[in-house]
Amino acid sequence: MNVTIIDVAKKAGVSPSTVSRVISGSTRISAATTEKVKAVMEELGYHPNLMAKNLVSRTTMTIGLLLPRNADEAFLDLFFSEVTRGILSQATRAGYDLLLKTGKSEQEELEAVTRLAKGRRVDGIILLQSRRDDTVIRYLLQEKFPFVLIGRDPERPDILSVDNDNVQGAYDVTRHLLELGHRRIGYAGGPLELVVSSDRYEGYRRALAESGIEPDPRWVFGADLIRQDSTAAVRALMEQPERPTALVVMDDLLAFSLLGSLSELGWSVPGDMAVFGFNDNPMSPVSTPPVSSVDIGVYQLGLQAAGLLLKSIKNEEIAERRVIVPHRLLPRESSQPPGS
Amino acid sequence: MNVTIIDVAKKAGVSPSTVSRVISGSTRISAATTEKVKAVMEELGYHPNLMAKNLVSRTTMTIGLLLPRNADEAFLDLFFSEVTRGILSQATRAGYDLLLKTGKSEQEELEAVTRLAKGRRVDGIILLQSRRDDTVIRYLLQEKFPFVLIGRDPERPDILSVDNDNVQGAYDVTRHLLELGHRRIGYAGGPLELVVSSDRYEGYRRALAESGIEPDPRWVFGADLIRQDSTAAVRALMEQPERPTALVVMDDLLAFSLLGSLSELGWSVPGDMAVFGFNDNPMSPVSTPPVSSVDIGVYQLGLQAAGLLLKSIKNEEIAERRVIVPHRLLPRESSQPPGS
DNA sequence: CTGAAAGCGCTTACAG
DNA sequence: CTGAAAGCGCTTACAG
């Protein structure tokens, strides 16, 4: 019922092989034949059946994106849509499609990935997170199936990955605050099982150490604490005799919560507490006060990841197996010294 | 090189047909045979080649999602990730995959959709927006290819669609503000070419009219104005002799901008101006003050759209061709009367 | 420059 | 309950 290559061949008075060659822009087809076949394709409204094409060419022109299963953190909303746009942009440019997959558990994720890989559903896969001893990564490695991780797997530094230098990012923010004269600087983030979180904590700690400052453990508190009861967390923080005057906050969303609680308790930002966030939420510039943040280039992460994956799929030379997307400090009012 | 159905058949001592039947859980295969074949599949690590399966079964078990091309508005970030999650959840449950597509122009979008439909790449498509005289919708209709629109096409009320009742939503918000005693109520939103925007404006206008209030045109201003220079827009608004005491705002992100400018100019919310937003941004409850909003159930929009599309693909009975996802007012501090 | 033939890995009437 | 055969719509050596 649908127009096939055979219909076109008949009508154009050539063989199916020839039509196929015209479609693929193959060599050595006469201009006359090419023109005739193209005209017939147009006339009949022919479009190649991608399934058939994929089956015989053993390639799908599709890459898979595995979504992290607990995507219920608001931060991930933004990350997800930006990174997807980056991936899609790069993939589309190269003629590739993007298939989305998710799983509710590690088991389901593994099944999904197995289906994609073994079922020849996609040519490569992008991962948005890695867990300790990640079975998905282990499987992909063992099958030698092309994949790229956005982030970092401390146990397998040699896999293809695209990431920020999160240690350096937090280091930069902390140094920035130190240079503004702050000595007692706190850190809000976590959980530390997440690589990104522990990396940022490490950068924070390192900058302080370089200045000979040993952070008081009471200056450091977890994201879950803030989410549960931000006001209680802030009150506990501010009641300390030696309370911090600045906070490095792992994500702007967290920073917004803290801002709300500080204001509720009558403290002013940046007067009583300077705040510097991460991930440059679109709301950060328009919040009250505007929140200082680190732009981590989420779109770029996606773009680069897709680029790297495509190289891997096509067996092209890969210069760096680990691509670092640069970050950028965006100081705004929430961390400005009073005078400026 | 990869294990095929033939390898399994040989090893199990049966025909390929039988293996195929075991895989599809077909009728009339003896328990003994089934067991034997399954054991061999397990042993050989067999996984069906999806391309081959799709080719012969003329079905892809995949649905396509077309992303709106100008997805650079921050609001869409949230909408996109939530709606995708809803779609993915429903699709995965039914054993379907999700393919993402985008185009930089209407022309590119049409080409993308043509490839998907004619190329038998997907079984159905979900659209996230419609334009006046939308060529993509016209094409899909003409090809009788299954699709669902999230939103509303005023020119084609009979297509499958999932949407909120945006007129009613804005009506409800405006009534809520009227009941709190406000008489001069403004509206911030637009552009009015977007159906969702004009629908909300219509609901706003209707509620006022019912109370015998004719809105002053100076109370109504566009989103672009706010994005360009929120403070100027707010100043102009507040300098009016008969300035509004409450604002219906088309999106929470817009509300955040307004909040910032109001605060900057020394006005208090809700004291000097009550604000009621839309789309319940995750930040709304934690902003200062917490922003009243309308939860439009984005996840549900995605879930229902996928459900509707799957019914259409399977030619199942469809009771309502237009599904309305209920909205919910979430009054917070930004619209509370001073005393409460 | 072009065609005939085999094959990609599966499903599905048709027989038995 | 099971098998042989044809076919899904394309590509790609192999010949000429």
Task: List the main descriptive attributes of the protein structure presented here.
homodimer; 340 residues; alpha/beta; 434 Repressor (Amino-terminal Domain); Rossmann fold; six-stranded parallel sheet; 12 helices; 45% helix; 14% strand; elongated; DNA-binding
Characterise this structure.
The structure is a homodimer of 340-residue chains. Chain A has 3 domains: 44 residues, 434 Repressor (Amino-terminal Domain), CATH 1.10.260.40; 131 residues, 3-Layer(aba) Sandwich (Rossmann fold), CATH 3.40.50; 130 residues, Response regulator (Rossmann fold). Chain A is 45% helix and 14% strand. Chain A contains 12 helices and 12 strands. In chain A, the strands form 3 sheets. In chain A, strands 2-1-3-4-5-11 form a 6-stranded parallel β-sheet, with helices on both faces. In chain A, strands 7-6-8-9 form a 4-stranded parallel β-sheet, with helices on both faces. In chain A, strands 10-12 form a two-stranded antiparallel sheet. In chain A, helix 1 crosses helix 3 and helix 8 packs parallel to helix 9. The radius of gyration of chain A is 26 Å and the shape is elongated. The mean pLDDT of chain A is 90. Strand 2 of chain A pairs antiparallel with strand 2 of chain B.
Question: Strands, helices and their partners?
Answer:
The structure is a homodimer of 340-residue chains.
Chain A: H1 5-12, H2 16-23, H3 31-44, H4 50-57, E1 62-67, H5 74-93, E2 97-102, H6 106-118, E3 124-127, H7 135-142, E4 147-150, E5 161-163, H8 166-179, E6 185-189, H9 195-210, E7 220-222, H10 223-238, E8 246-249, H11 252-264, E9 274-276, E10 293-295, H12 298-313, E11 322-324, E12 328-330
Parallel strand pairs in A: 1-2, 1-3, 3-4, 4-5, 5-11, 6-7, 6-8, 8-9
Antiparallel strand pairs in A: 10-12
Helix pairs in contact in A: 1-2, 1-3, 5-12, 6-7, 8-9, 10-11
Chain A binds a DNA duplex (16 and 16 nucleotides) through helix 2 and helix 4.
